[in-house]
Design goal:
Elements: E1 3-4, E2 11-12, H1 17-32, H2 43-54, H3 61-91, H4 96-112
Antiparallel strand pairs: 1-2
């Protein structure tokens, strides 16, 4: 006997423990850790998403969109961090001794590499 999962999910066989775990995990995540948004995208982009799914790169278009958003958010986080570091060096620049010491340490670590 099988039961239907949440709207849009495949039917899950209750005698298949891994499938049941995946369904429960999805339900927990969907109800507690996610927000559904509606987005309109150009047809060409939708076709590209479909191709990614057809090629097996992603299981669903939603998975591809989540991955892309994750990449965008991470890139922005890194950009902000880099900007913050650069601002710190502009506020308190390194003196010549610090630069020389860092240069010596970099050269030493390069020589220690087993290339």
């Amino acid at each position: 006997m099988a039961f239907a999962g949440l709207r849009g999910l495949r039917r899950v066989d209750p005698l298949d423990p891994p499938a049941v775990r995946r369904l429960l995990s999805f339900c927990w995540y969907a109800l507690r850790m996610s927000e559904q948004i509606a987005v309109r995208i150009p047809g060409e982009l939708a076709e590209s998403l479909s191709e990614l799914v057809a090629e097996g790169r992603f299981e669903t278009k939603a998975d591809a969109v989540r991955a892309a958003l994750g990449t965008l958010v991470e890139a922005e986080r890194r950009r902000r961090l880099g900007e913050s570091i650069a601002d710190g060096y502009r506020r308190i620049p390194q003196d010549d001794d610090e630069v020389k010491g860092a240069t010596r340490a970099a050269i030493r670590s390069i020589h220690e590499e087993p290339w």
